[in-house]
Amino acid sequence: MNAKNSKYVIDHAIVTIVGIMAVLALALMVCGCGFDKASTGGGMTVHNNFVTPPLTQDSLREVAARRLGETAQVRSAILSGDTNSLDISIAVDRPATCEDGSVEATMSSLSRKVMPTLFEYPEVSSVSMTMYGVTQGAKSDEIASKVFVNRVTAQDVDWSMFGPMTMSSMVTEYYIHPKILENSNATSGGSGGMHN
Prior knowledge:
This protein has 196 residues and is an alpha+beta fold. It has helices at 3-30, 57-68, 103-118, 151-154, 167-170, 178-188; strands at 38-39, 45-47, 50-52, 73-82, 85-93, 124-132, 143-150, 173-176. The radius of gyration is 23 Å and the shape is elongated.
């Protein structure tokens, strides 16, 4: 193959690739797959050109486990409500290494990891995250901390600023067990009134 033929082959390949990209872009525009999130009407959600399957009990648990990773053991992930207004409740066990003074930081981190992703689904109307285990290292059914956010509140949350010092003022409802709060204040010299 001489230089003239190889230039022709390269030029032809570039034109073909650009043509394929143009056809794909046109197909995405025709099917309504823009850069904004929207519902396709069939339970699928389009967000940034990716179609996400409808939120089901199984997919919720997968999303929670994937977003939380090794940080926390997911105890349950429950969907309730109807298809147009879903309420989500995620429960985790308190990590064994989570001291009383770290419960708020852990809760804000867990909430920040999962809540923004779930609110990308237009049918989600609220998300709650509950951590169980008041005593460090001992599993129990006693609530250590709980964060609840409804859609109205979520629309105003700057998730990049969501942390232990701002969490209680950014959520719809917040709870921390009094024993944890007391122990946390005793070891840190007070929390500065972060609690509702």
